[in-house]
Each structure stands twice: as structure tokens, then as C-alpha cells.
Task: inverse folding
């Protein structure tokens, strides 16, 4: 057994580091945390950013309602406790992707400041990039892409953010995107510019 | 608003697909699910495979106790329900990494067949690769790298797999690694050979 034990030790000493994964990918990892009201454009902008980065050979991934609420978080509802646990789990998964040198975009309302701050605290400083997609309630309600505001106004959905549940806007986000004034492509380019300026797009 | 809405639609049509991520990485994603008794060598072999693949330019990640039990699953204990939820969440996260064209290795005892089968069912056929790291209880207990068997025998740990909790060996795993007979490097090479043969290492 002595030989094999020695081998074990050698291998344990050679785990692949975060820096080595960054070197392979040619860039750093980051968490682009898009937050804002339903209909503000979070998911659309996140996917636009993801598409632009992918086109430049950057390794990316998107976490959104489609792949989280139906999978990892399918056993969570919309109570305050469940919303907090929802965001916590998404934060932990984002951290794993970030450790793997991936630029991960998340698109969740994430209405509570305390929950977003918990996620920020998980990451090394600078890797959590809070992006407030700022659109007026009027704009979001006029868009109403899934008809959810109509249902919330009719009382068919309870606890809907912006109607009968609060949205706590970020106080010091890394980026604010004005979704009332600019189109998706312009806003996505603002995010890319931030990543370039901050050195994330090289290893 | 009409212009912007049109832009939204365009972008939604251009989400990055799994196939595009595979093309960028130059290989497919897969889940290498290492299962076996405590001390059988799961984590050591998983890290050896990860290091070998990384050295060949393959995009990889390891999920293990260090980054899961302290993070995503820190609110879970060791009751049967919590063990099941532990494995379910790890399965869902593995699937996300796999969708991102990463070869992810997981190193958890995962003693229950039903739990492993739930994870298998999450993935498209072929992407879940169950790897039974087979070492006799005698070997594992002699290694006892964390001194856990000693504590379990002394009754200081309850519900310890192999001592007073069952380990259900896989009935039809994709790979069986004989950890009593072979060293870490040999076993890791057997995993790489499986991935090559099965076409995972090209896009």
C-alpha cells in the first residue's frame, strides 16, 4: 500500500487551481448579477451579453428561471424564506462557475438587498458585478411580456414585486443600465465595456 | 418602444446553444460521477482525472465535499432526506456544468442507488457516467485518511456508510475502478480511455 499512498499524496498536491483554469480559458471568471423588476429586460440583456462574449471566444454561461426554477430550485416557492434560499443557491452556483473561469450571467429579480449582499460576500472582491437594470414600473408594466402584471393587478398573483411586494433598488451597484432610454444592444455593450475596462477579458 | 421590442425578439432567438458551447471548447460536456465508500479514492482519482484532462486543454471542474458541503449544501445534514437532497442538488449543478460543455467530476459517497438514478435521469442519455470506485471495506478502513472509520467504530459518528449505514453498489455502472489492485494514475487513465473511446474529447 505504501506506493499507492505516495501516489495519492502527489495527486492531491496537483489539483488544478483557479488561476490555471483562467490561463486555459484566456480570461477570468466573473458573476454578472442582473437585478430589476419583472419585464425590465434582465434576461434579454443577459443573453445579449452572453452571445457577444461567446462570439469573442469567452467561456460563458447563463443562469435564469428556465434552468434554475425547473431544476436546482424546483423545491422552492415564493415565500420570503424561499426567495432568500433561491438567491443563496444561485449565488453559490455562480461562485462555482466563476471559480471555473467562466463569466456567468444571472437574471433574477432578486428584490432584497440583504440577499444580494449575501451573494456578494461569497465571492472574492471584484468578481461579483451587480448590474441594476433600471426601468420604470410603467415601462415594465407596459411591456408585460408574460402577462404577469395583468394577473398581479387582478389579484391572481400575490406578492408580485413592484405591485404588492417591494423591490429594493441597489444602492451601490457596479453598473446601472437605463432600460427606459437605451435598447438591448447598447446596454449589452455597456456591460462588455465594463468587463474590458476591469481586466476580466484577459487571463 | 417598437424598435426596442423587435431587438428583444432578435436576441431571444440568438441564445447560445449547448452545441455552440461545445464547439468553442472543442469537446463535449460529461458528468463523471465517482461513487464508493469513504476512503476508496474517489476524490483523489477525480482530481487526477481532472489534472490529466486540464493538461490536454479540456475544460473541467471538480465538485467535492470541500466546495459543496461548505457552500451550496451547507444547510443540509446527514439524515436520509438530507442525503437525498444533497445528491439531487449536486446532480442539478453537474447538469448545468455539463450543459456548459465542461467535463465535471463529482466525488461523493452517494450510497443510495435511487439517488444516483435520479441524477442519471436528469441528463441526456450518455452524459452521466457512473464510476464505481470499488475498494474493500478492509482497504478503506486501513487507509482511513480522515480518521472517520475509527470514530465510527467507537460510536462517535452515527450512520457512517459501510459501518452502520448501507452502501448500495451500482448494478450497471459505466465503469468500475478496482482501487484495491491499481494505483491512482492507472485508474485515472482508465477513465480518460473511456472518455476517448466514447467521443467526449472532441466537439
Result:
Amino acid at each position: 500500500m505504501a506506493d499507492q499512498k505516495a501516489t495519492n499524496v502527489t495527486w492531491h498536491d496537483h489539483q488544478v487551481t483557479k488561476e490555471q483554469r483562467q490561463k486555459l480559458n484566456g480570461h477570468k471568471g466573473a458573476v454578472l448579477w442582473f437585478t430589476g423588476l419583472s419585464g425590465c429586460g434582465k434576461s434579454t440583456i443577459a443573453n445579449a451579453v452572453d452571445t457577444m462574449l461567446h462570439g469573442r471566444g469567452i467561456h460563458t454561461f447563463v443562469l435564469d428561471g428556465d434552468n434554475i426554477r425547473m431544476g436546482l430550485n424546483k423545491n422552492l416557492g415564493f415565500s420570503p424564506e424561499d426567495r432568500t434560499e433561491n438567491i443563496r443557491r444561485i449565488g453559490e452556483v455562480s461562485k462555482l462557475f466563476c471559480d471555473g473561469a467562466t463569466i456567468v450571467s444571472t437574471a433574477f429579480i432578486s428584490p432584497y438587498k440583504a440577499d444580494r449582499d449575501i451573494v456578494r460576500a461569497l465571492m472574492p472582491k471584484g468578481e461579483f458585478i451587480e448590474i441594476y437594470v433600471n426601468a420604470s414600473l410603467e415601462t415594465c408594466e407596459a411591456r408585460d411580456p408574460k402577462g404577469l402584471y395583468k394577473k398581479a393587478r387582478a389579484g391572481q398573483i400575490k406578492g408580485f414585486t413592484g405591485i404588492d411586494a417591494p423591490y429594493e433598488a441597489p444602492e451601490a451597484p457596479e453598473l446601472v443600465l437605463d432600460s427606459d432610454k437605451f435598447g438591448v444592444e447598447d446596454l449589452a455593450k455597456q456591460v462588455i465595456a465594463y468587463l474590458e475596462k476591469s481586466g476580466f477579458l484577459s487571463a
